[in-house]
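Repro:
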Amino acid sequence: MTKHQTMRHVALFRFRSGSAGHIYRSIEPELADESHSRSKAECWLETPDILVLRVYAADIPALRASLNLWLRLVSIAEDMKELIKSGGITTYE
């Protein structure tokens, strides 16, 4: 049995954004570092403008905690991209 099969709960989100690739690249390092025994997240680009986030969890409290983390990271990445577009932050992209 794989780890995902032991997880009882799953949440799936699709985000449509012209910045989907930037958002994905900004949260990708967190995916590589993730090591939680009660939850697991996967993220990928379905299309150039659709980011998919899937979160597995063993129980509801773990699902809530994991969703808080991942949805916040996506939101912050989108906010930062908008701030950069508006000229509020300068980058060397």
